[in-house]
Automatic annotation (TrEMBL):
Record's subcellular location: Cell membrane
Name of this chain's protein: Tyrosine-sulfated glycopeptide receptor 1
Alphabetical list of Pfam families matching this protein: LRR_1, LRR_14, LRRNT_2
Record keywords, A-Z: Cell membrane, Glycoprotein, Leucine-rich repeat, Membrane, Receptor, Repeat, Signal, Transmembrane, Transmembrane helix
Domain Leucine-rich repeat-containing N-terminal plant-type: 40-77
Subcellular location, principal: membrane
Residue ranges annotated for the Disease resistance R13L4/SHOC-2-like LRR domain, each copy included: 350-528
Lineage start: Eukaryota, Viridiplantae, Streptophyta, Embryophyta, Tracheophyta
Family, as annotated: Belongs to the RLP family.
Length: 806
């Protein structure tokens, strides 16, 4: 299946519910008679359909010759013994759809959705004179839609609902095929690979057309003006295509429109046109992800029925119109990533009692958070991050009893202690992004701060906080993601860290933490097993996490397991118990003062895709067993005191030379210093010893923790990661950009630039650390070397900035 099965499954159900009245009327006339039995001709047509299935989902148990086909599973007949219904959704059917179904002269309702059917859609079904409802969505059908015969049918086709969504159809959308469908009311062709222009004659051919869904295809060209002739059109969805140009004036003649969705295209122009006022029946307006400009028009206040407004990711400017206060039925307002300015006080939010989601991220809004927002008692998600707001949090935020998602990052808020004391009363709060505020304050150690028992994501990065990691965090028992990077926190990593039994994403990089890596960090339950993460309750985010035009993430558990201690002043050795953290995908201990050898046990971290131990004082040889990490794509041990030959084979043959730089005693084909014969012989002996050690370690480790990960389990765990975190596959070469990408996705959740705590593609090197002074806090790494050391992990080509990656 393709990228949006869930999305289209919802659409399919909506379509069926939308026309439930039609279906019920049909069923009244189509109820099977207990005394009826189908004709031999009808039975033969069904058996030919069965014969073309390579997997019949158990139908053969009841579909047997010599029995009444009116009693077969999924089949219903009319009084005249003709088959009226074939309803076989979600049966696991595999194979081709036989054209013999077109010979069922009385067939009115055919539902083959959510199966594994492939091949083309028989023209006989589209040209059937009896079928009223045809649903083949969520299959693997491919090829092109064939044109109907050039000669017109003897009588108009009866087809009213056609759902071919979520397949693999390609080619141009046929135009002549619709001329015979005078009764068509709903067409869902979304989530395919159709190309070319949108046919202009939909409404001329099908004057009763009510629902038209063409989203997630590759349609190009302009929106046809002929769609304005659809006097009964209520839903028009053509988002996620390549449509261009402006909105045609004729479109505004479709005054029955309730749902207009044209998001993620290349449309442009201004919305301040008088013609658009005629669309007063709109319930949902989604024009996000285009190039619309100008102000949000005042006539928006005339859309009294409007419930959802999406103008995000455009070039809208000016202030929020006061007229928005008149849209009293608004539930969702998404205006993020525009160039809106002025103060939020222009809108009287107390007039929007139904508002649940308000997203104004990444604009140029200023002033304070208006008190009227706290009157929106149904608000569940509030994102005001990346603006120029200032002031302190109001205690009235406690009125938002349903608030679970709050992002205020990258503003100029002050008084972190007051903010935490207020927010602790928000009992439903699960996601909190307040980083890049409160600059230079002391992170509160107040023992009375509690109440965050439902918090799952906490981001207080980039604030240049001083002080220690506060103990009140330990009481956030459900915390899964913790971002403290880019501050000036001192002291050790607290020993209570393993009490956060759900934590699997921890970033405390770019601070001034000292001491040794605590052994309790090696006891993190979520990092010790991939099964622990996959078995967690995948709580749905209140705001969709997106990456690119078509990838969406709605759960916290779709993110990778990360342990990032980079750029601190940690000392001591890397604990050999690190091998217990088998769920880790990203491990970064770089830019510290760690000493000793690289533990052999790291070879047990079979899910690792990024390992960075650069810029420490590590000694000894590189463990040959590391080449068993088959998914390791980004690796650096540069700027240490390692010695001996670089292992060959496996992933080591794919790493850049810079991964091993500034280790004067290393040798190998990847370096200018080649190994002599004695060193090569030593490498063979060392490899044998390390192999013996690995076997011994696995045996000893298994005695306490069970049998080690087998190779097939390794493959399965990696496949699970790819499914859950598909955004990392966007980059062909997964170097250090993967790490940035992981946190970038989280950044999208809260729109707070986490990349400043990692590596940003288009950020000057001097600003890539959240605090310049932190670079000097570990004086053995000169700043000039710091830049050179990490440059090898940067992507080599400059990528166009995606607005969804900000």
């Amino acid at each position: 299946m393709k990228k949006l099965q869930l999305h289209n499954r919802t659409y399919s159900k909506v379509l069926q519910m939308h026309y439930l009245g039609v279906a019920l009327v049909l069923m009244v006339f189509c109820l099977p008679s207990p005394t009826s039995s189908c004709t031999e001709q009808e039975k033969d047509s069904l058996l030919r359909f069965l014969a073309e299935l390579s997997q019949d989902g158990g139908l053969s148990a009841s579909w047997r010759n010599g029995t009444d086909c009116c009693k077969w599973e999924g089949v219903a007949c009319r009084q005249d013994r003709t088959v009226s219904h074939v309803l076989l959704p979600s049966k696991g059917l595999k194979g081709h759809i036989s054209r013999s179904l077109g010979a069922l002269t009385g067939l009115q309702h055919l539902d083959l959705s959510e199966n594994l059917l492939s091949g083309g859609l028989p023209r006989e079904l589209l040209s059937s004179g009896s079928i009223v409802f045809l649903d083949v969505s969520l299959n693997q059908l491919n090829g092109t839609l064939r044109q109907l015969p050039s000669s017109p049918p003897a009588r108009p086709l009866q087809l009213q609902v056609l759902n071919i969504s979520s397949n693999l159809f390609a080619g141009q959308f046929p135009s002549a095929i619709w001329k015979a469908m005078e009764n068509l009311m709903a067409l869902n062709a979304s989530n395919n690979n159709f190309i070319g222009r949108v046919p202009a004659q939909f409404c001329n051919s099908s004057p009763s057309l009510t629902v038209l869904d063409l989203c997630f295809n590759k349609f190009s060209g302009s929106i046809p003006p002929g769609l304005g002739d659809c006097s009964k059109l209520r839903e028009l969805k053509a988002g996620h295509n390549n449509l261009s140009g402006t909105l045609p004036d004729e479109l505004f003649n479709a005054t029955s429109l309730e749902y207009l969705s044209l998001e993620n295209n290349d449309l442009h122009g201004v919305l301040d046109t008088a013609n658009m006022v005629s669309l007063r029946n709109l319930v949902t307006l989604d024009l996000g992800g285009n190039r619309f400009s100008g102000k949000i028009p005042d006539y928006i206040g005339l859309f009294k029925r409007l419930e959802e407004l999406h103008l995000n990711n455009n070039n809208m400017s000016g202030q929020l119109p006061y007229a928005l206060s008149n849209c009293t039925n608004l539930i969702t307002v998404d205006l993020k990533r525009n160039r809106l300015s002025g103060e939020l006080t222009n809108v009287n939010f107390s007039n929007l009692p139904k508002l649940k989601t308000l997203d104004l991220d990444s604009n140029n809004l200023s002033g304070t958070v208006p008190e009227s927002i706290y009157s929106c008692s149904n608000l569940t998600a509030l994102r005001l991050s990346t603006n120029n707001l200032h002031g302190q949090l109001s205690s009235r935020i406690g009125n938002l009893k349903h608030l679970s998602f709050l992002s205020l990052g990258k503003n100029n808020f002050t008084n972190i202690t007051n903010a935490l004391q207020i927010l602790k009363s928000s009992k439903n709060l699960s996601t909190l992004f307040i980083g890049h505020n409160f600059r230079g304050e002391i992170l509160s150690q107040d023992e009375t701060i509690d109440g965050f028992e439902n918090l799952q994501v906490l981001d207080i990065q980039g604030c240049q906080f001083s002080g220690r990691i506060p103990v009140w965090i330990s009481r956030a028992a459900n915390l899964q993601v913790l971002l403290l990077c880019g501050n000036r926190l001192t002291g050790p990593i607290p020993g209570w860290i393993n009490s956060l039994s759900h934590l699997f994403y921890m970033d405390v990089s770019t601070n001034r933490l000292t001491g040794q890596i605590p052994l309790t960090l090696m006891e993190m339950p979520m990092l010790k097993s991939t099964e622990n993460i996959t078995h967690m309750n995948p709580r749905v985010f209140d705001l969709t996490v997106t990456n690119g035009p078509s990838l969406e993430y709605r759960t916290i558990t779709s993110f990778p397991a990360v342990l990032n201690l980079r750029n601190n002043c940690l000392t001591g050795v890397i604990p050999p118990q690190i091998g217990q953290l088998k769920a880790l995908v990203v491990l970064d201990f770089s830019f510290n003062k760690l000493s000793g050898q690289i533990p052999q046990s790291i070879c047990n971290l079979t899910n690792l895709q990024l390992l960075d131990l650069s810029s420490n004082n590590l000694t000894g040889a590189i463990p040959v067993a590391l080449n068993a990490l088959h998914f390791l794509s980004a690796f650096s041990i540069s700027n240490n005191n390692l010695e001996g030959p670089i292992p060959s084979g496996g992933q080591f043959d794919t790493f850049q030379n810079s991964s091993f730089d500034r280790n004067p005693n290393l040798c190998g084909s990847a370096l200018t210093q080649k190994c002599n014969s004695a060193e090569a012989h030593q490498a063979i002996i060392l490899a044998a010893k390390q192999a013996d050690y690995k076997v011994a370690f696995v045996i000893e480790f298994s005695a306490f923790f069970g049998v080690g990960v087998l190779y097939d389990q390794l493959v399965l765990s990696s496949f699970n990661f790819i499914i859950c975190f598909a955004s990392w596959t966007i980059n062909v070469a997964l170097r250090h950009a993967q790490f940035r990408g992981a946190l970038t996705s989280l950044n999208i959740i809260g729109a707070d630039n986490m990349t400043h705590c990692l590596i940003g593609e288009d950020v000057p090197w001097s600003s890539r650390f959240c605090s310049e002074s932190i670079v000097h806090s570990c004086p053995y790494i000169p700043k000039s070397e710091t830049a050179n050391t990490r440059n090898h992990l940067l992507p080599k080509r400059k990528r166009k900035i995606d607005e969804d990656d900000t």
